[in-house]
Design a protein that fits this description.
By secondary structure, the protein is mainly alpha-helical. Helix content is 36%, strand content 7%.
Length: 234
């Protein structure tokens, strides 16, 4: 059976999409599944030209999830900064004198420092030993008032759906927040992860050419992402 030019182009685009998605190391499984499902529905699904089938319902059926889970998948991708509470060392962070390790004792002095370039937080912990307190003094002074001086934190979570689809993501992220009773405000750096400033030590995602929705009858709507029909009524 010969493929039409549209089918061939859809297959190529879907292969490119899948390759890009699986190559994105920071992609959570739920977000990955949603992007691949939307890509399949808009590019490869044999029923993609059927006007009676909404993309929201079709995506939900393919993923075998309910409306709440669909909103959770979108909400999980809402661009934001999340502090990793497991990233910093446990216990006192003052270095030992004769041993190449941190003190590690139980702490009595705890404070946060905010990076003047990224706005990201670091949590400091020190014990009551005089030597450790002396080491902490300049750090404590540097951290004092750092919150007021630091910019809004650069997002480090979410923002992956806009890499692949042009759509009114801000409205959908807000709706997801309402449905899930979570507060969310759009970051000033943009919604798409490729728009955020590069942070040392963190690879910046590259944008994928935005997918276009093929409407019923084969009419191509340029510069539009998947319209999840029924999403606003969920």
């Amino acid at each position: 059976m010969n493929q039409s030019p549209d089918d061939h182009d859809g297959l190529l685009r879907y292969d490119q999409l899948a390759t890009r998605v699986y190559g994105e190391r920071r992609m959570p499984q739920g977000t990955r599944d949603l992007i691949l499902a939307l890509g399949w529905i808009t590019l490869r699904d044999p029923r993609r030209h059927d006007p009676s089938i909404g993309i929201w319902a079709r995506t939900r059926d393919i993923l075998n999830v309910d409306n709440k889970r669909m909103w959770e998948l979108i909400g999980e991708d809402a661009p934001r900064y999340e502090y990793d509470w497991h990233a910093d060392p446990r216990g006192c962070q003052a270095p030992m004198v004769r041993v190449d390790r941190l003190c590690g004792k139980s702490t009595s002095l705890n404070f946060a420092e905010f990076d003047p370039a990224t706005g990201w937080m670091r949590d400091w912990h020190f014990c009551s030993r005089p030597r450790c307190r002396e080491y902490a003094k300049p750090i404590h002074e540097r951290a004092r008032g750092s919150h007021e001086k630091a910019p809004k934190p650069i997002p480090n979570t979410g923002g992956l759906l806009p890499l692949f689809f042009s759509w009114n993501w801000e409205a959908k992220y807000r709706k997801a927040g309402e449905v899930l009773h979570r507060s969310w405000e759009p970051p000033s750096y943009g919604l798409s992860a490729d728009e955020w400033p590069e942070v040392p030590g963190q690879e910046k995602p590259k944008a994928f050419p935005k997918l276009r929705l093929v409407a019923s009858g084969g009419e191509t709507i340029a510069r539009r992402g998947p319209v999840l029909v029924g999403a606003d009524r969920a």
